[in-house]
Amino acid sequence: MNVETSYSGTTAVATVSGRVDSANAKDFDQALRAIIDKGVSGLVVDCSGLRYMSSAGLRVLLIAIRKTNAAGGGLALCQVPDHIREVLEVSGFVRLTKVFDTAADAQASFAG
Amino acid sequence: MEVRNELHLALDGDEPRRVAEMFEEMAVEHDVPVDIVFKFQLALDELLTNVVSYAFDQDTSDAAIKVTLEMKNDRIVAMIEDNGRPFNPLLDAPDPDLGLSAEDRTIGGLGIHLTKAFVDTLSYERTEGWNRLSLVQPLTAHSEENA
Q: How distant is the Cα of B24 from the closest Cα of chain A, in angstroms?
């Protein structure tokens, strides 16, 4: 798993790639916490390179959703591969976070 | 061609991934549709993560976890066996309340919820000190769809 982040004011786009499972969910959690701790309240997670995610990854997303909500922003996802989107739907996560086609659309949702 | 592999797992948090990736490799070779490869792999990962995390106490010298993976012409079959504490994930795991807000949601039971949604037939039995979970996914319906 790899996370690359680009910052823009109080929003950021974190592009996660590879595999997120119980073996490395801790690393994913640390990566998102570090971003939010820099003062980011609108976090976009770009899933274009995400090959696999189990419920361990959902747990990490849930924590990040709570933290960004509490900061007055939120978490949005973009470029979600179909099979990961199904995980989000079956787990009810589509109600907790918005899913956008592009990172730009997701980032724009935090403007104003 | 039908293939059968038996794996013995150490009590280690990295083992579910090893099995999931081995399954993925077998399934791709067997021309299993990618959608089924992903879902079945996730089910194996979730169930094994539960076993590795919760089935055994501190004293693990007698711990045994075994996984059998079978690729048949019309279905995929997996059997997960462990000699840990009795636990039927199909009944004993809490059902997540998917209607709650992010603040009120708990993550417990989500792995099993996904597993139940993603695999056609799951069954559990406890016999002679062993938990035995079987997963069966037919392949025919899907190939008919693609025909």
A: 11
A54-81 residue pLDDT tens: 999 999 999 999 999 999 999 999 999 9
Give residue-wise pLDDT tens across range B109-125.
899 999 999 999 999 99
Instruction: State the helix-helix crossing angle for A82-90 and B34-54, rounded to 10 degrees.
Output: 50
Instruction: Flag whether the ipTM exceeds 0.85.
Output: yes
A92 contacts: CB under 8 Å, gap ≥ 6? B96, B98, B99, B105
More confident of the two residues A111 and A9: A9
Domains of chain B with CATH codes: 3-146 (3.30.565.10)
Q: How many CB pairs under 8 A join A and B?
A: 70
Residue B28 at interface with chain A, using a CB cutoff of 8 Å: no
Residues of chain B numbered 52-71 and touching chain A (CB < 8 Å): 53
Domains in chain A: ranges and CATH: 2-105 (3.30.750.24)
Residues A59/B107, Cβ–Cβ less than 8 Å = yes
| Cβ <8 Å between B13 and A23 | yes
Q: Which two tokens stand for residue B7?
A: 């794996």
